[in-house]
Amino acid sequence: MLFIKYRAGINNIPLEITVPNNVKTDITPRFVRVELERIINEQREVRVLMSGTPGDNFVVGKLEYKPTTVWVEGAESYVNSIKNVIAQLDITGKSENVALRLPLKPVNGKSEEVTNVDMGASHVDVSLSVDLLKSVSVKPDLQITTEAGYIVTNVETSPASVVLRGQKELISGITEVITEPVKLEDLNRDRTYNAKLNLPEGITLHKNTPVVVNLYLAKLEEATYKVSKDKIIFSNISEGFEVNTDDVPEDINVRIVAPRNVLDSVKEDDIKILVDLNGLGADKYTIELAAQLSFSLEKDVRELHLAPKTIDIKLVEK
Question: Do the beta carbons of residue 136 and residue 188 sit within 8 Å?
């Protein structure tokens, strides 16, 4: 028997017919024109194509998959037309990590599927992390001292909040992020410094925004204000009694230590002298005075002194 080897490309293959000896035949045409291709086996890159968007306040993280390449076997023209082997991953509404097995499909440069080929793997195993985004406030960790006679009047952090990124179970309970400790001594002027955030393990910034902390200082000064005795507020006077203030000085001196802008803003109604007479009957009393400041002043005042500290009064029947 004669074996004829044909090559890739156009081949003219003779036709042969076997008939009984007493039969005459005539074959037309005597040859068949056949185009042959080599069968080849090549590797192609696997690509996972994502579509859609995750749930609100979620972002996708690291995508991993196996295999990353796959062998493709078939006619040379078909295999050569394959650009990638792809899998489609829809992440619409995802709020949890993804672990899936997806079917693979060979495609050409026009993203059209190429058929009539065999692949070494029909599926790809995909894992995708899905992270939660959460906005939290920034709290500076200040370990500072000021020079005598100065105070910190305000601390501003820019930005006041940052967006953190991480796995839902790690980030859900976080309400603030604290800066790394900053130690400053004997401050006597405003300061600005760049702060590093002390992020919990597994948590990152969604956007790497620098954090700046501004410290505002003021020099302490003092001023004395007079409150007339008729402005003293006597409370809880027993029924049927009244207060005799003949022995009370005409003015109570209130000395306040605070920044100058605070001292300049003090109004008459901002200072109240209080005396509580609860449970007292007719008699002479030496009462310790207490001062009450308006909230707008109280938070910025560092010292408050009364002179005199006590007053002598009489409770008498009406």
Answer: no
Number of domains in the chain: 3
Q: Are 205 and 248 in contact (CB under 8 A)?
A: no
Cα–Cα distance measured from residue 226 to residue 267, given in angstroms and rounded to the nearest whole number: 11
DSSP string, 50-101: EES--STTEEEEEEEEE-SEEEEEEEHHHHHH--EEEEEEE-TT--S-EEEE
Q: Measured between alpha carbons, how far apart are the two ends of the chain, in Å? A: 145
Number of C-alpha atoms within 13 angstroms, CB side, residue 222? 11
How many whole angstroms separate alpha carbon 207 and alpha carbon 133? 11
In a 10 Å sphere around its CB, with 0-12 CB exposed, 13-18 middle and 19+ buried, how is residue 89 labelled? buried
* Domain boundary pick from 162, 193, 220: 220
For the whole model, what pTM was predicted? Answer: 0.69
- How does strand 58-66 pair with strand 123-139? antiparallel
Amino acid at 218: A
- Tell me the pLDDT tens digit for each residue of 173-209: 999 999 999 889 999 999 999 999 999 999 999 998 8
